[in-house]
């Protein structure tokens, strides 16, 4: 974890676009998991904390601002450990034995603790899963939760059942090769070239999931775990174990529009929205009824920035423009262009 700590510290201390967290009220999640007693996968306990009531939450500056991690993962129907109305009191008072958690949750809790974070937010455990009232309250806040986190942990397809995997360390290290350069006048020169495997933070199974899109947009820092190596991405840099110094990223425009609610250029924001919506519409959902919910956090954030009303996927003040959507290929004739028989949005909405 030493290289991960170095990336995080470098970003926190040196990157102006992503070093400072938002201090707006309400950005601390309603519930967090206290991982201070998460020793290892076989022993330890994680305790659910209600930050609106709990007076022992470690506050950073006298407000309700708390440093915590988040987790991005693909929902798995085999998971049996959730927070529900029947067990929330036990989760708050007795906690959850870490060996009862799904592997990915247990490893995320331990990773957060090893990186110096006492709390982590995991959707299945921090939202009451059988309460429509709690879901209606918490789901629109998810973008804020991911944005305000110190770090997001993201599990790739190769390690669907967990964050950690056995890896060939040699495959992650930079290496040297000898080569011959052909110079003018028939001259040749022997050189040694430093090479490193390419960064692998681009496509994983998460990049095809609808719920994950806002989890890629909003976090200031993301640590990616896959079968090959650990990699990192923030608003200014992308790095991996094979390229630990990283390469510069130019994500400033998207980053500023989604992380700064004072920016008032409506055209820029709407252009960003349409680009994101085009990407989102290509993604998969386990339940098509989630089509609007899975992007509601982003919509809520942009609604505050725009000062506009968001109705069924459409912006009120840009109604005519927003209604000019169409299927990507109307001549294709596939199911993707046919309106779903089960209601999920008004007929005039792109989400229908």
What does this structure look like?
This protein is α+β, with helices and mostly antiparallel strands and 352 residues long. The protein folds into 2 domains: 1-259, no CATH class; 261-352, no CATH class. 26% of the residues lie in helices and 18% in strands. The chain contains 11 helices and 14 strands. It has helices at residues 2-14, 88-93, 103-114, 123-126, 132-138, 142-148, 213-217, 252-259, 266-280, 296-306, 319-322, and strands at 31-34, 45-50, 68-72, 96-97, 119-121, 151-155, 175-182, 188-195, 221-225, 230-234, 237-240, 243-248, 310-311, 314-315. The strands form 3 sheets. The chain has a 10-stranded mixed β-sheet, sandwiched between helices. InterPro entries: HET (IPR010730). This is HET-domain-containing protein.
The tally of structural domains comes to 2
- Largest beta sheet: strand ordering: 4-2-1-5-3-6-9-10-11-12
Structural class designation = alpha+beta
Q: Which strand-content bin applies to the residues?
A: 15-25%
| Uncertain residue segments | 198-202
Output mean pLDDT.
76
Brief write-up:
Residues 68-215 form the Heterokaryon incompatibility domain. With 352 residues, the protein is an alpha+beta fold.
């Amino acid at each position: 974890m030493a290289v991960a700590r170095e990336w995080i510290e470098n970003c926190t201390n040196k990157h102006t676009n992503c070093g400072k967290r938002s201090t707006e009220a309400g950005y601390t999640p309603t519930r967090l998991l206290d991982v201070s007693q998460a020793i290892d996968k076989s022993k330890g306990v994680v305790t659910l904390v209600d930050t609106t009531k709990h007076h022992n939450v470690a506050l950073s500056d006298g407000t309700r601002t708390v440093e915590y991690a988040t987790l991005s993962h693909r929902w798995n129907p085999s998971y049996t450990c959730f927070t529900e109305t029947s067990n929330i009191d036990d989760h708050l008072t007795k906690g959850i034995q870490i060996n009862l958690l799904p592997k990915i949750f247990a490893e995320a809790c331990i990773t957060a603790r090893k990186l110096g974070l006492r709390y982590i937010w995991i959707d299945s455990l921090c939202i009451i899963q059988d309460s429509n009232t709690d879901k209606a309250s918490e789901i629109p806040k998810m973008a804020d939760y991911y944005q305000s986190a110190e770090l997001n942990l993201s599990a790739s397809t190769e390690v669907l059942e967990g964050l950690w995997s056995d890896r060939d360390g040699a495959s992650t290290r930079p290496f040297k090769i000898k080569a011959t350069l052909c110079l003018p006048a028939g001259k040749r020169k022997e050189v040694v070239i430093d090479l490193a495997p390419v960064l692998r933070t681009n496509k994983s199974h998460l990049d095809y999931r609808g719920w994950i899109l806002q989890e890629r947009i909003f976090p200031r820092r993301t640590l990616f775990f896959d079968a090959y190596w650990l990699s990192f991405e923030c608003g200014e840099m992308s790095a991996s174990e094979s390229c630990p110094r990283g390469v510069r990223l130019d994500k400033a425009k998207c980053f500023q529009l989604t992380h700064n609610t004072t920016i008032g250029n409506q055209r820029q924001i709407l252009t960003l929205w349409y680009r994101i919506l085009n990407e989102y519409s290509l993604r998969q959902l386990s339940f098509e009824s989630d089509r609007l919910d899975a992007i509601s956090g982003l919509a809520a954030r942009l609604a505050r920035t725009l000062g506009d009303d968001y109705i069924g996927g459409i912006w009120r003040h840009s109604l005519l423009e927003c209604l000019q959507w169409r299927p990507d290929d109307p001549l294709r004739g596939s199911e993707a262009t046919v309106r779903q028989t089960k209601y999920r949005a008004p007929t005039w909405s792109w989400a229908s």
